[in-house]
Amino acid sequence: MTNPHIPVTEDELHAYVDNELPAERRGDVEAWLATHPDDAARVRSWRTMAEALHVRYDGIVDEAVPRRLEIERLVRQPRKWFYAAIAATLAAFIVGGGVGWMARGASAAAPSAIQNFTLHALEAHRLYVVEVRHPVEVPGSERAHLQAWLTKRCGWLVRAPELTGAGLKLVGGRLLPGSGGPASFMMYESTSGERFTIYTAKSEAEATQMRFSSEGKESALFWADRGVAYVVVSSIGDRGRLTQIAQSVYDQMEKPGG
Amino acid sequence: MLVKAFAPYRPEYLVTMTAFRQSVEAMIPALRRYARALARDADIADDLVQDTLVRALRSERLFLGGDVRSWLYTILTNLNKNRRRSLARRPQFMPLLDNNPDASGTEAEGRDIARALSTLVEEQRSVLLLVMLEGLSYREVADIQGVPIGTVMSRLARARAHVKASLEGERTALRRVK
């Protein structure tokens, strides 16, 4: 039995609003509220707050679930949704008239991990592609050593993909400080002198869809796979070529033996 | 056999979709709502949901019954905590004006529930949303956050007081400490 003369505590007011109060005490609280306008006003304000939350966020429940969150997609082999994501990303970019997620992200409370990786990769790209004499620490002629060294220092498997099919030769690579630890950086060059760089860092996201971003002259494709973030950056405006190279990088990372 | 000939092709993953996956799938809309309110940014929110789903599906075999719903909320809450922790380790590069309530906040924005939420500390925001928006019990929230029920109740009380004050416009007193 409860006693209506026992004062109602603040905890009980919360429990009352949240339907956590034992049924036999509800009547006591209601009687209390009838004679305590301050508490009644507080209870009302909490209910208004709950309504405001539902008004603001319930619409999301009725939204169509984005394709990247579909269960079938997530349980299938990653490669299929990966390519679909590239297409979707590029389509969204073109439709969006080039207003990339970076611009939108700038108004968010804090930059996302993806933005940070991409910004670091873009900075590294800009800093080193203009280097003529010392663009890398380890030259491409020492590919095996470069891979072993970066793998050892970074802690994940770093491989310099073979991109001769895309007309690119490995210039070499270097170790960079990333946001949460080391990052690897590799540079490729075509016969006409266009340079592409591949940046990898440890990612908190196990796997993400591919995203496109461009800033100034540079454009970047980002994705994460098995806990490693990859950013491929180029200074040419050709998105098709960038995508082709990113796909080639992705395919080679999928095959640890090759 | 005409019927069979015209039966739609059903890929194997649909045929083998387990009860577990179905219960995970049923939670996606609510997880998106929670993540959006928690993280504000729609892209970040869906990233959180995607990571949550990937983790859950990968651990399907480790899941030995129990409440899928609470488990998914737990994963998402923890992922968001990790994300915020890693943000905190970094210096902030965002424009000063962007986070300054005086410069960018109109009265209407100041009263906005999303803005009020953003002034809460992480664990208070999470308690408030799980109870008030997602309708979880104190017991469930205590399990999700790994704290006693009493802690959940005091976090909820503080969160409500803070949001109430924020919505009522006591912005000067509540300005986020940076």
List keywords for this structure.
heterodimer; B: 178 residues; mainly alpha; 13 helices; 0% strand; globular; disordered N terminus
Offer a quick outline of the entry:
The complex is a heterodimer of chains A (258) and B (178). Chain A has 258 residues and is α+β, with helices and mostly antiparallel strands. Chain A has nine helices and seven strands; from the N terminus they run H-H-H-H-H-H-H-E-H-E-E-E-E-E-E-H.
Which helices and strands appear, and what pairs or packs with what?
The complex is a heterodimer of chains A (258) and B (178).
Chain A: H1 10-17, H2 23-35, H3 37-62, H4 71-75, H5 78-95, H6 101-105, H7 113-129, E1 138-139, H8 143-154, E2 169-177, E3 182-189, E4 195-202, E5 211-215, E6 218-225, E7 228-234, H9 239-254
Antiparallel strand pairs in A: 1-2, 2-3, 3-4, 4-7, 5-6, 6-7
Helix pairs in contact in A: 5-9
Chain B: H1 2-6, H2 12-15, H3 19-26, H4 28-39, H5 42-58, H6 68-88, H7 101-104, H8 107-111, H9 113-118, H10 122-133, H11 138-145, H12 149-167, H13 171-174
Helix pairs in contact in B: 4-5, 4-6, 5-6, 6-11, 10-12, 11-12
Shape summary of chain B? globular
- Arrangement of strands in the largest sheet of chain A: 1-2-3-4-7-6-5
Total helical elements of chain A:
9
User: What is the rounded distance between the termini of chain B?
Assistant: 70 Å
What structural class should be given to the helix and strand makeup of chain B?
mainly alpha
**Count of helix runs of chain B:** 13
Order of helices and strands of chain B: HHHHHHHHHHHHH
Instruction: Please summarize the sheet with the most strands of chain A.
Output: 7 strands, antiparallel
The stretches of 5 or more residues of chain A where confidence is low (pLDDT under 50) are: 95-110
Q: If you average the pLDDT of chain B, what whole number results?
A: 77
What's the quaternary structure here? heterodimer
**Sheet having the most strands of chain B:** none
**How many E-type strands of chain A?**
7
Range of strand content of chain B: under 5%
Secondary-structure-based class of chain A equals alpha+beta
Q: How far apart lie the N and C ends of chain A?
A: 74 Å
- Share of residues in strands of chain A: 15-25%
| Average pLDDT number of chain A | 83
